[in-house]
Design a protein that fits this description.
3 domains; alpha/beta; 17 helices; Alpha-Beta Plaits; five-stranded mixed sheet
Length: 455
Amino acid sequence: MPEEYTQQEHIQPTEKIRTLVVDDSRVIRKAISTILKNEAEIVDAIDGEDGWNKLLQNDDIQVLITDIDMPILDGYQLICRIRAHDDERIKDMPIITVTGAEDEETRTRAFACGATDFITKPIDKVQLKARVRAHARLEETTRQLEETTVALEEEATTDPLTGLTSRRYFGQHGEQDIAYAGRHKSELSLLRVDIDHFKKIYREHGDDLADAMIKWIAAALSKTARTEDTVARIGGAEFAILAPATGRDNASVLGNRLLAAVNKKPFKSGNTSVKLSICVGIATLEFAGENADGGTFDSFLQKSNKHLTFAKAEGGNTVMAATRTESMVDQEEVTLGEAAPLAEPEINAKEIISEAARAFSEKSIEDLEKEISYEAAAKDVDSPTEEHAIAASDIDMNNALALLANGETEKIKADLPDLVARILPLLEFSDKSLKLGISHYIKRIKESLSNNLKK
């Protein structure tokens, strides 16, 4: 016998191989058990049916050794039953068949059923040990490889901390959603969500609590979003949501629902309680035109990031929404960390006023003016009229709107500062009540109006 086999025979594995031996001969079962006593932990069965039941009862069996000619359920039937099972552990079990040295017909048929390997009678103990060991190692390596593959696939698509979609998968899915929306001429919104003041929270509470807060926010976002939405963690405390078939108004509703979900109760862990809040920036693609171009996903994400910056500038816990096709979005120039002046937006005042007017359609303009004037006085609303007294206009709001509708704009030019100042409280109240997301633009109107009055 070669020296290498003699040495191999005395190798003691650190863990015994759980092996099922199926044979109707007690002598053969005993012989195999004796040969493998230092290599394996043996479970034996007296026929194929008994072997099948033992295999189902013992989920740690690594290798099966079976005879072919047995009563009740023979070796062929046992192999076929194993290979047809739904359980991967059972279906992929290494099966070593015991055959006669010259029994080619048995080998061929056993191979066809799904046998892995063969040992011949009389049984050579070195061959038996080597094959059991080799197949056990192969089975273990294959299983570990499959587990690693699954883990890598999940890592590629899932954020390991929160269980949300990963940034990589989110980007791929975003490109697909843009293409789909373009083909079907439908709307698509992207909501960028950041935890307010997270760097300060992290410095104060450390890694473990910070991770717990991120998971808490992720759960709130996932629970609040719709089934068709894709929720992802794209950075440390940064999240994003793709909302298909969703325009600006519905995306704003979703954004405010996210705010409400986070504000509903504080984060708690042990004796620590922290009131968390978020900012939401929304960008919306519209494909109404025949040649509408949605652009790339990166440019779409960039648009939502800009509106997130505006939301943060409002102090946090804010939703800022705008449609990608609006000129005000195209003219924004905002850089994080810099106090650069903002480009002047082109504000569609008619659209904003129409949004507000729809909510108060049962009231007259005069009633609204009285109501808003009272609201502004009660809440000490900051408006240009507090610093610059404007003479009462000879024209009321109804007449001004009528002249504007008739195209007689020259007749109201002189009264424009007064008219704009009078409508500002209405816009502020409408923004708060209807969640229009226009507080930043109202502020800009005030600043521009104040500068005009100083001239």
